Structures are given as structure tokens and as C-alpha cells.
Amino acid sequence: MDLKFHDVEPTPAERTAVDDAVGAPDSTWEGAEERSADDLRIARGGHAARAQRHLLLPALAAVQSEIGWISPGALDYICRRLQVPPADAYGVATFYALLSVEERPGCVAHVCDDIACRDSGGTAILEAFADRDDVVPSPCLGQCDRAPAAFIQRAGSPDLTLAPTAVSEITAALEGAVPEAELPNPTPQSDRSGMRVLERVGVVDPSSLEAFQASGGFSALEKSVEMGAAAVIAEVKASNLRGRGGAAFPTGVKWEGAAREDGPRYLICNADESEPGTFKDRVLMEGDPFGLIESMVIAGLAIGAEHGYIYVRGEYPVATSRLRSAIDQCEAAGWLGNDVNGTGRRFSVEIRRGQGAYICGEETALFNSIEGYRGEPRQKPPFPTQSGLFGKPTVVNNVETLLNIPGIVLGGGEAFAEIGTKDSTGTRLFCLSGSVAVPGVYEVPFGTTLRALLDMAGGAISDIKAILLGGAAGSFVGPDALDLALTFEDTRSAGVSLGSGVVMVFNETTSFVGTTRRIAEFFRDESCGQCVPCRVGTVRQEELLARHLNGADLDRSLLDDIAAVMADASICGLGHTAATAVRSAVDLGLLEAT
Amino acid sequence: MSDVTITVDGRSVAVSDDATILDACRDLGQDQPTLCYLENLTPVNACRVCVVEVEGSRTLVPSCSRSAEEGMVVKTDSPRVRLSRKMVLEFLASSVDLSQSTEEVHSWLDQYEVDVARYGPQVTGAAPRDGRHAGHHAIPTGLTAETVDQPVKVDNELYIRDYAKCILCYKCVEACGEDAQNTFAIAVAGRGFDARISTEFDVALPGSACVYCGNCIGVCPTGALQFRSEYELRQEGLWEEDEQTVTRTVCSYCGVGCNLELHVQDNRIVKVTSPMDHSVTNGHLCIKGRFGYDYVQELGDDLASTPIDIVLKRARSG
Ligand SMILES: Cc1cc2nc3c(=O)[nH]c(=O)nc-3n(C[C@H](O)[C@H](O)[C@H](O)COP(=O)(O)O)c2cc1C
Ligand code: SF4
Ligand code: SF4
Ligand code: SF4
Ligand code: FES
Ligand code: FES
Asked: Which member of A261, A581, B200, B245 has the greatest number of CB atoms within 10 A?
């Protein structure tokens, strides 16, 4: 590969940001300033240089976060360092909403106007800032229990999350203030007795390894080492644990599949949580970061992986810093590294931060994102357990899925399978938001009814008009669904899905027209653009709704055709589900009532 | 290599185990529509016009890339398949200028009864789309159907880029990159409907890595990438494809032996292509074979006698 670069130099600050992210350059071939005698004799830039492509997104993110935008000079320097063609790097940079290739203000507020926040003040905040270029609308920020939310990107300083927030607070934050707010308890459930996954959240200090170990932390890892990999996988299979990320695939089967393939193998914790209405993974990572690391080490050793990644969404600065601190402490104490707790086994964990792309939560898009390519999903087959990250066998698991593992190891798969129902074993976290008295994350055994779940949260505020189950990729149900048992099988036969555990309640004050339209906007914004059904279908769906909202009759047959091609012919789950919620809103008559 | 047997629309066919469903269909003489697939490129399976129904599969599958597996039962003309193909073509026809796409494309538009009117009048007006930011878009009124209409990029003497005609099939990116040229001058930038083919920071081609091999033009199915000569002649209403002859010859510049197809109108070369089925280059060329034909038809000042000469001369001189 013979790459052409430009004659633009990075500024010293840009150079430092990149070098801090990817290391100092070895030679002028990779963009060093001082030419050494060797540089004239030895050409570099072969395979070894190109094998660094996976550092592209961290390098771009570093420049964005230090400088506030990615200039031609910075991009060119990154490309020299990593031997990536500039056009490719530009294609990657422009894929992510949090990266800017145009100069812009150093502080930018992303104000959520997604389905939970829009009617709780998000839209009003945006209107108040309508004339400013440093305040932009944002999709769900994973703070729906504290709506309205904002995320502040600050060049040269750590990013901030504000939730619940207000115009005055955002104004102050854009001027450099760091507001200190008392956060509501994210796990307000009063009866903690049935908690397995949330056990430590809000109870054990998330910043302290000692506190974690005093609460039984790492005992499951020790037991799993005694049991051996095959026995751990057997217990996970016996537990019938199914993935909590949305697809509900049996975890044990996935692990077994990857363990059967030749290595190297990878483990990825999917913490990209961007499904509108979902915030449970954030609460888990903020509240029990060590628990997630322990779960990952157990999983990594069981499938025979030596390296794991946590892909955490870029809008979660608190979760990221707590995880980073937990990893550092675990490395220092020997729970991670070349000899995990004296077992002679190697396992390390690396954090990768997303940069504002819902699609990167789709597992194959996530691989491309880590590898330094655009976050475009891959056609399956081959499946990740055969050919995943870097083309190697890979297990991708959701945060909540993984945090079920220590309990399974300690108590046995059979005991786990006793909880819940036969096909939906264990407990499930639900993200309650919208018109409920006490929003937050609740943990209940599978089989709990929607009504019982809402009662735990103090019930709905005034009469329920509709409930969004499963997120923007899920569907609206009416109040007649309150007796639905929350299991994979019951929701499936009712034609809905649990998705990522979203339960968002709407009453008669909701503008369903606006809410439904926002969902259509979301899919249009988040489509990767690779395949025609979803790239154009999400636009046509939004236009069709807009037409209807402007007074035209709803063209049901066209909506059905658009939905059919997206569900049938798209590459990935985003396209497959992009019309589900919209159609359910139409079916429930929610758009007519307003 | 062992054979696998699959059934396509009730007919059984044996193919080698590295064959795709599309290969099997072609063996049966049942070609399927394809837009992003080309024999000499790695499948990206992005356009989805080639989808077929496979028994046991929840969704439709792209025939161009999905391997034929023993016992597969495939339907290429079921109501589901027909609807999805119709919709894919409708989505493209309602958002992209397909007027200069291949004849095949137009025959599929008829075959699948594409009706773009149901999306409303198409937006034209040609604002550049290069600055669009991922995750944000202007909220539509629904009164018009959004399109990719935008100004033509004319920034060099040899070829133009008219991305209002681009269906984002990725073929040019593949030809410029790993599948042929290894130059990586262009890539997909942006996201969703705002995704586009671009150089870094949208710099003009002369400032980019482009070496003007024209291999991107060779694979483009929509006329989004065109010889400058073809573009200028079309602008003047002088492009007469029916009157052109195509002469196959061997490139005279070096010893590799690339085959050239000279497209000639009014005794003038108006563009050069290369046959895909040729073992030396599989349809790809370099700048010399693609564009270096002036010496066989010197268009000197005093030779500029016909309108086509004038247009060609203007195209050459930038
Ligand atoms: C558009 C899209 C977005 C997704 N986002 C996430 C996500 O943020 N977190 C997650 O765990 N899974 C997400 N998934 C599901 C993953 O592809 C994958 O199924 C999951 O991470 C597997 O883990 P599990 O088996 O533990 O659920 C998403 C899927 C799609 C199609
Ligand atoms: S369905 Fe949408 S998000 Fe998924 S690959 Fe296709 S365009 Fe991308
Ligand atoms: S002419 Fe060749 S080098 Fe230039 S963009 Fe096209 S394929 Fe790439
Ligand atoms: S320019 Fe042509 S080849 Fe390139 S993506 Fe567009 S339609 Fe395909
Ligand atoms: S944080 Fe605003 S909708 Fe979730
Ligand atoms: S030709 Fe098969 S997906 Fe495009």
C-alpha cells in the first residue's frame, strides 16, 4: 500500500493528543518530527504499521476530546502514524456523531429530546437554545429515569452528564462550571431480597477493590478456576441463561461454540447501551464495576480467551472512569494480567469508547468499530463465535448477561434455572421511566406481570395510555397488556419483545404524534446507511409519518410495504425492527387520538 | 471440491461447494438482478436487490454472497421476494437519478412495477451534501421525497463525479481499494441516508490520492462516474450510444497485455472500457490505457471541425 498524505502538519497539541493515545512515533516514516540516520536507510510502514488500524478510533477520539474537532492536520498525522489511507479515516470519523471534522465550539451540549426526555423538558430546553450552535439535539442518553438529560463534550476537560438538567445548568456548564448535583437513587426498589444482579449496586462502594472483596467479590472467580472451563460452561448451559442484550440467545451455547473453535479467541462486553429507554447497563457499570470485571474474567477463562474488551458508549463518562479505576486496581492486585490470581492463565481487559453510534451496539458493527472501520454490520453467517473480532472466534455478551455469571457459578446452573420460568430463567432488570411514580432500574424474576412491576415503582402517574416495551426497537402496548407475564415466551406469543428491558409509561399528556415521529427520526439518524432497505426505508417511513401529521390520511399499505422490506431484506437488526414501534403505535390508534 | 445440490424454484442443481446461490441460479439460466455485485469484486451485499427466500431462514438472504448449502430450498419469485425487490428498486428510483443507469436496471424497474409516485414529488435543487453531520438531519415535511440530488463534481480533465446518480453500491470504493487499484483515494463517509462517496475532507481529486486509473468508472453501474468526454457530450445532447462502435484491441503502452474496448462515435474515441472476462486485468486498467488515447486521434487546433471534436477538446483541456 502506497499512501498519499497531505502537506499539513498537526499542531503541537494535536500531535501530543495522538501520541498519548497511540504512543510516540518510531521514525519519520510514521510522522516523527526529527529524522534519524536510520530513517534514510530503512523504510517502514509494512504489516506491523498497518496492524495498528484498531487504534484509529481511539486516536480520533483523543483528538476530539483534547482539541474539540479533528482538523486536516490532525487526521493526516493519525493516518501517517497508523498507515491508514486518509479517505478511509475521514470515512470513519464522519460515521460518529460525537466526532466533528469541522471546527466548532470547544464545549458542546447534546440535549436529549428522545422519547423520555422530550415531554419532560428536553424539547423546551432545545427551544431555549435554538439560536446557539453549541447546543444540539441528542438521541437517548441512557438517563431516562432522570429526564431531561444532557451530555456536555468539553475540549481539554472530561465530558459531563447532566440529569436531570435545566437551561441554567447547561448554560453554566457551557461556560466551564461543573455542577454538583445530588443524583436520585438509580435502584429505588425497596425489597432487595430477590436481587442477584443488582445486589451490590448502591450498597457496596464501587471505587474500592477491598469493599468488593469484602462483599464476596472474586469468590466466584476462584470457584470457577477450581471447576475448570468445561464445568463452568456446563453450568451456564444448565442455567439456561439467555442474553439480555436483546436477542435472547442462550449464553452457554454461545460460549461452547466459541470454545470449540481454534484460538485466539476474544471476549467482548457489549456496553454500548443506546437503545432508547435503556439505562440498566449504565447503572450496573457505575454501581458494580468490579463485578463486571470478575464476570468477564470467568467468561474469558471459560472460553479460552486471553483478551477482553468492554465497548462502552461514549456518553457514559462516569461508568467509563469507574471501570478504568476498577481495571487498574485489579491489574495491580493480580486479578487481571499475565497470571490471573496465580492460575498461570492470562486475561486482560481493555476499554473501548464508542463515539455516538447506536449501530455499534450490534455485535458485528462493534467488531468493525474496534478494528478501526466504519461501524457497519456484517452479513451473518459467519457468526461471531466462528469469525468475529479480527476474524477470530468471539463471544459478545451484554453487561447484564455477564453479571449473572458469578451467581450461576456460585449457586449452580440448576438453582438458577429454578428462578423464573422454564424458558426464561433467572431475574431480569427493567428500566422504568416515563409516567411512573418512582422511575429506576428494578430486578424481578421472569414471569412477573407488567402490573406487578409497575406497582413496585409506585404505579403509573394518572391513567396509562400506552407502554413502550423493549425500547425503540420494541413496541407500544395498551393498558390491556398489564397482565402480560414478562418472559421471553409470553411476550413472543403476544407479538412483542422484552428487548433490552425498557418499560416506558405514557399517559394522556403524551404527544404520541411527536413521540412516534421521534422514533422514526431516531432510526433514520442511526441507520449505518449500508443497505438500501434501511438507508432509504427509514427516510421514507419518517416522511410518511410527517405527511400524516400534516393532515394527510395515513398510507397504511405503503407503511406496511416499507416495514416489510426493512424487516425482510435489511442486513441487521436495526433495519429489521425499525418499523415495529411505529406500526404498533398506528395499530393502537395512538396517532388518531391526538 | 465436492458438489452440493440445491433446489431453485423447484428445479434441482448441483454446484461446487464454494458456489453462491446466485451462481446456482445462473447455472440454471435464471439470472437474478444485482446492483452491488460484480464478478471481479468482493461482495458487499449492500443493495439487497438480489434477495431470495431460503426455506428455514427468518429473513430473505442475498443470493450474491450467500453460499449454496446442501439441501437448500430457494425461491426467487415468491411474493416476499417480489415485494422486497420492488421496494429496493422503488427506494432507489425515488431517491437517486437512475436515468443513466444500465438498461438492465431499467428492465427491472418495469419487471417489478416500480411506482415512485407514491413517495411524493422528488426534491431537486442540488445543494451539496458533503457537510452533513452523522446523527442529525433536517426534519421533513413529508410533502416531498428526499433525494441525493447535488451538484456534479467536475474537478479534473479526465472524469466527473455526479453523485446525484449514486446508489452507494460501494463498487468504486472496492475497485479503488483492495479489489483492484490499492490506491484508497475514496471511501464511504457520513452515515445513513447522508452516507456518500468522498475523498478526505472532500478535497478535489487532483489533491487526493487518485491516480486516474478510471477503475471506479469501469465498475459504476449508474453513470455517477463518467468520462469527462461522455459527460460533455451528454450535456450538449451529442451522446449517441446507438451509433457507437466498440472495438477491442490490446493496449500498446506496455507488455502486460490489457485488453481495451474503444467506444467510438463519429470516428472519435469517446470512452475506453476493458472486458471483465479477460484474464489479464479482469476489467481494470491504468491511466494510460484508460485515458491515454489522444495520440491516435490528435485533436489539434485546426482539426477541431465537428461539434464532437470541440466538445472533446474542451473536455481534455479541463
Ligand atoms: C442495532 C442494534 C443495537 C444493539 N445494541 C446493543 C447494545 O447496546 N448492547 C447490547 O448488549 N446488545 C446490543 N445489541 C444486541 C447485540 O447485537 C448482541 O446480540 C448482544 O450484545 C449479545 O449479547 P447477549 O447474548 O448477552 O445479549 C444490539 C443489536 C442491534 C441490532
Ligand atoms: S439494516 Fe440499517 S443499520 Fe443495519 S446494515 Fe442495513 S443500513 Fe446498516
Ligand atoms: S480513478 Fe482510480 S485511483 Fe482515482 S478514484 Fe477512481 S479507482 Fe481510485
Ligand atoms: S459512484 Fe457509482 S460505483 Fe460508486 S457507489 Fe456510487 S453508484 Fe456505486
Ligand atoms: S435519556 Fe433522554 S430519552 Fe433516555
Ligand atoms: S447484489 Fe446482492 S446485495 Fe447487492
From this structure: B200
Burial class for A411, CB neighbours closer than 10 Å (0-12, 13-18, 19+)? middle
Q: With respect to residue A183, please indicate whether it lies within any of the assigned structural domains.
A: no
Q: What is the pLDDT of residues A500-525, one digit of tens each?
A: 999 999 999 998 999 999 999 999 99
A87 has pLDDT over 80: yes
Residue A394 and residue A294 share a domain: yes
| Partner B, chain A 93-132, Cβ-Cβ below 8 Å | 94-97, 100-102
Q: Where are the domains of chain B?
A: 3-81, 82-119, 159-315
Q: Which three cell numbers stand for residue A267?
A: 471476549
Q: Is B170 in the pocket of ligand 4 (CB under 6 A)?
A: yes
Contact across the interface for A87 and B143, Cβ inside 8 Å: no
The string of pLDDT tens digits covering residues A155-183 is 999 999 999 999 999 999 999 999 887 77
Question: Where does a domain end: A470, A487, A507?
Answer: A507
Do A531 and A464 lie in a common domain?
Answer: no
CA B141 to ligand 2 center in whole angstroms: 24
Ligand closest to the CA atom of residue A162 = 5
Which residue blocks in A261-395 are alpha helix, DSSP H? 280-287, 289-303, 317-332, 363-371
Lay out the sheet containing B245-250: strands in order across.
B245-250, B259-265, B268-273
Q: Topology of B159-315 in CATH?
A: Alpha-Beta Plaits (3.30.70)
Alpha-carbon gap, residue A210 to A224, rounded angstroms: 20
Domain B3-81: give its CATH code.
3.10.20.740
Indicate whether residue A404 lines ligand 1 (CB < 6 A). Answer: no
Q: How many residues does chain A have?
A: 594
A325 has pLDDT over 90:
yes
Express each pLDDT in A194-249 by its tens digit. Answer: 999 999 999 999 999 999 999 999 999 999 999 999 999 999 999 999 999 999 99
Of A87, A521, A539, the CB nearest to B186: A87
Domain hosting A517: range is 512-587
Under 8 Å between Cβ of A107 and A174: yes
pTM confidence score? 0.97
Whether residue B54 contacts residue B188, with contact meaning beta carbons closer than 8 Å, is answered with no
ipTM of the complex, rounded to two decimals: 0.96
Strands B225-227 and B159-161: antiparallel
